[in-house]
Each structure stands twice: as C-alpha cells, then as structure tokens.
Design brief:
The chain has twelve helices and 22 strands. By secondary structure, it is an alpha/beta fold. It folds into two domains: 245 residues, Alpha-Beta Barrel (TIM Barrel), CATH 3.20.20.80; 88 residues, Immunoglobulin-like. The protein has an eight-stranded parallel sheet. A six-stranded antiparallel sheet has the order 15-16-17-22-19-20. The protein is elongated and about 75 Å long. It starts with a strand and ends with a strand.
Length: 442
C-alpha cells in the first residue's frame, strides 16, 4: 500500500532554524525519500493560522497559504504559497503523493467578538479574512440555529457548525480547491471525534478532477481513542461510501510502546485481536510516534522493535520525521534502520500476515506475498540473554532465505541464511532484544 512520512513535528521550524522555510527544507529531502521507497508525505496544516508561529491547528484564513499579509506576516510558519506548490510538484515528480492536514472542527484568531443570538453569549466568531473567502460570523459556529452542539469542542476555540449549509458548502469547496488547484492527493482529518462522520464522508465522495481525470482522495482520520470507538467511527463514516477513509491505529501504538518500554512484555499480546492492523488491516494506518503522542508519552527504549513490526505487518505505515532524521533511526544505507525496512516493505510485505509461532519471548510471522511482493519472515526476540529462534513451517518449500534487516540491543551479530526443506520447515533466529527479517529467494 505504500509508506507515509509525517513530514513535520511540533515546533519543527523553530527547532531546526527553518522558520518560514520548512517547505523548502522538506523539498530537499524528497528525492532521497522516494529512492528509499516512501510513497507519500503528510504535511502540517497549510493555511494561515491565528498566530504567525503556529503549527496551523488554529486556522484563521483557509485560503491564505502564505501569500497574504495578515496575522503578522505574509508567509505561514512553514513558508509561502509558491514554496508549498513547488514542494508538491517535486513530490509528484518523484512519484509520491502528498496529504494535507485538514482542520475543520474549529477556528481561531477571529477579528471581532459577537453576541450569539441563540444563547446570548459573546464569542470571537467574526472572521473577515483577506482572501475574502469563507467569511464567518456567529451563525457558522455552535450553538447555532441548525444545531446546538455536535460531538466535542476543542478547547475554547469556536466550534464550526457543519450543519449550516453555508459552512458545509464552503468546506467542501475548500477540499476541492486543495486537490484541484493546489495539488494535494488526500487528507489527514484532524480531531474527527469533534464532528459527524457524515462530513468526512461528504469530502471523501468528492469527484475531483486531476490530470483531466476523475479523482477520489485517499484520507485517514485522527480518532484518538480505543479500538471500539475507532471502529464505530469507521462504520459511521464509511457507511454506503465508495471511497472509505482509514484511521490511525492508536491501540497498536500503545501495545508497541509497552513492548519497547516494558522489558518482559509478552509477545503473545502482539498476536491478539484489538488493533486495526489485526482486525481491519485495509483501514489501518499504523505508526510509532506522531507530533502529539511524542510530546506527552514518547517511546523511550528499543523503538526500532516497533518500526520493524509496522513495516513488516499489514496496514499503511506512517514514519515520524524526528525518528527518521533527528534521532538517527533512518540510517539510509544500513541494514539496522528504518530505511531498509521501508525498502523491504515496498518490495516484499505483501499478502496476508500469519503468525507461525509465538510465546512470551519469541514471535515469528510470515507474509505470504502478493504479485511482485514476494513475502517475508519476521522474527522478534524479547530475550536479552542470547539469540532466540524456532523451527516453523512456512509456505515456501525448498527455498533459500536471506537476512535483509536486523538489529539487536546487545549483539551486533549477523543472522545466517536459512533453507526450508521440502515441506517448508526452516529455522529462523533473531538477536537478543531484537528482530530479523528474512526474504525468500523465489
């Protein structure tokens, strides 16, 4: 399905001395990311926000992409509109897609306060953006004559009322504009628990025109909750839709954190139901860190165990920029980093995933292969006192297996090639507190 790079993190322009230059910085990385095997970028919110040093999750003028002088600057914190369009063009030139972070639950930075005529309360709800598009007043927000409140609010920011026909139409038009005129290929929906799934479905059912052809956007929603709540949201949002949306697999992420940070964590848990990757893999976007969880609940130890898991199993994996670049886990050109796992994912991680063996300290999984993706064997060893492995029966008979990626905390040894017998049985091992990926030579 591909691999996404989340091409930002919180305060990235400031922390990397790239204020108002982030689009150009990301653009410089695109060719190498494409070469490794990444297929998409997820960009932060691109519209002018309430503050000139904002990450964009407090949108003010949806149509100002860094080309109008308001809120203290012309550029957004990430750059100018022309630089954004230039980045998108380079992404497409390198055969990748680019997803926009769509923040449509709430707004901020209003120009005036108004009295809401429903409850007589004064709020900051009068928006007069310089783009002269999607002007808003109290009728566009909750409480409204169309709906008192929807599902949730986000802090004290005014909460958009999507049941107002004007708001609904303007948001649909904004999504169309991002795809047809700016060049985005899909969306990441922010804070989807704050509004009805029908709004997302309406955008997903857009029939945009790209390259003179009908086009349907790929998208993923941030439903930060339990598996049951995420599944309920997916069922609601995708009911009767011919372009279903995916969701981030938060339940899997928290299992992976326990795996990495809790020595002695039973690997049997990785084979249990209760994650999207296990129960609804075609709708799962798997991840290890993102800009939110890493600030409050980061993975501290052995994070490559988690990346090895998501890049060999089912789902659409999303890689975090800081892990790849800032914290040294990308390791392009080596067998022990994320880059090699991305190559393996794109070349081999096809077909169904089946667990061939699992106990508290050893986990062996097979991807059966599909089309040009020829399958793989993944081994994880949770013991810290030596290599660990097992004879298992694979679908590959009389086949040579070559180790392609591996990493261990305590041992820099290299896994050995293995051969399966005429019945498909072979022995596979992984280094202590580590993993190994074996590729069948078929």
């Amino acid at each position: 399905m591909g691999v996404i790079m989340q091409a930002f993190y919180w305060d990235c322009p400031k922390l990397e001395n790239k204020e108002h230059q982030w689009w150009e910085h990301v653009k410089s990385k695109v060719p190498s990311l494409s070469e490794v095997g990444f297929t998409a970028l997820w960009l932060p919110p691109v519209s002018k926000a309430a503050d000139n040093t904002s990450m964009g999750y407090d949108p003010y003028d949806y149509y100002d992409l860094g080309n109008l002088n308001q809120k203290g600057a012309i550029k957004t914190w990430f750059g100018s509109k022309n630089e954004l369009i230039g980045l998108i063009r380079v992404v497409h030139k390198n055969n990748m897609h680019v997803y926009a972070d769509l923040v449509i639950n709430h707004n901020s930075g209003a120009d005036y306060q108004e009295v809401n005529q429903v409850d007589k309360q004064k709020r900051w709800t009068r928006f007069i953006p310089k783009s002269k598009k999607f002007r808003r007043n109290w009728k566009c927000f909750h409480p409204s004559m169309y709906e008192m409140w929807d599902k949730e609010t986000f802090g004290d920011m005014p909460d958009l009322c999507h049941r107002n026909p004007y708001v609904y139409t303007e948001l649909i038009e904004y999504a169309r504009w991002l795809i047809e005129e700016i060049g985005f290929d899909g969306f990441r929906y922010d804070c989807v628990k704050g509004y009805g799934g029908w709004m997302v479905r309406s955008i997903q059912e857009l029939r945009c025109i790209k390259n003179k052809k009908s086009y349907k956007p790929y998208s993923v929603g941030e439903c930060w909750d339990s598996e049951r709540r995420i599944e309920d949201w997916l069922d609601e949002t995708n009911a009767w839709s011919d372009n279903p949306v995916g969701a981030f697999d938060f339940p899997l992420r928290y299992r992976l954190k326990d795996l990495c940070d809790s020595y002695g964590y039973s690997l049997r848990n990785l084979a249990e139901r209760g994650t999207l990757a296990k129960d609804r893999p075609f709708e799962a976007v798997t991840f290890v860190e993102n800009h939110d969880v890493v600030r409050d609940n980061p993975i501290i130890s052995d994070k490559m165990l988690a990346y090895a898991f998501i890049l060999t199993h089912e789902g659409y994996p999303c890689i975090f920029w800081q892990d790849y670049y800032n914290w040294g886990l990308g390791q392009e050109g080596y067998k022990s980093g994320i880059a090699e796992l991305v190559r393996i994912h794109e070349g081999h991680a096809g077909g169904a995933a089946s667990v061939l063996y699992v106990d508290d300290n050893l986990y062996i999984m097979q991807r059966e292969g599909c089309g040009e993706q020829r399958g793989l064997i993944f081994v994880m060893n949770n013991r810290g006192d030596g290599w660990n492995g097992k004879w298992v029966q694979t679908k590959f008979k009389d086949t040579k297996f070559v180790p392609a990626a591996w990493r261990g905390r305590y041992d820099a040894g290299i896994p050995q090639e293995q051969w399966s017998n005429e019945y498909g049985w072979a022995e596979f091992l992984a280094p202590p507190r580590g993993y190994a990926v074996y590729l069948p030579q078929v």
